[in-house]
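G., the chain you wanted modeled:
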Amino acid sequence: MSIQKAFSAMQLAAEKNNLPVVFKNDLEQDYRILQNHNTDFIWLLRTGGTVLTPIGVGVEPVYITYWKYQNHGQRVIPYLVNTKAGYIEKIAMERAEKLILQLPSQLNTFMSSDAIVQKVQSVLEEGKKKKIWGTFVSPDIEISDWSEWLKFFILSDNELMKVYLQRAMHLLKNSKPELHSDAA
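Predicted structure as tokens:
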């Protein structure tokens, strides 16, 4: 029910701002995306359509940052979409950028090797299942093959996931299981 409330607020914002001017059917696609993810989103309401991007799952940040740094000539209004509470909030582009740059999960030296592996594999499984990293086809890489995932993220210029995996690999390489607890 909260997804419907959030989507109704999105429709109202689009109507109020007379956006998008073209690609108005993007809103229909946005509704399908909202139903597919259990997270908050950054929503860009633009002259030429919309961009709806889940936060904290490792989506390539350029989907948001492009609209801050490029001279694209479009009117762009960023929003935070909270599907759990069912509302949207107009935000500054700087906040949108900060939110989209959030890592999928926190990894630290206090975590056991097993906890790190579990968190990273969960992120990779979810991303692969929901096709977060493949525009049309999700990469055909085994969840446990982090080296191949790292290559994929490097080749696709997903700096966020590259950093995330490198951190996980570094923590595993330097972990001493007897010094870590299983609490994450």
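The helical segments are 2-17, 26-36, 62-69, 93-100, 113-129, 146-155, 159-174.

Shout if anything looks off.
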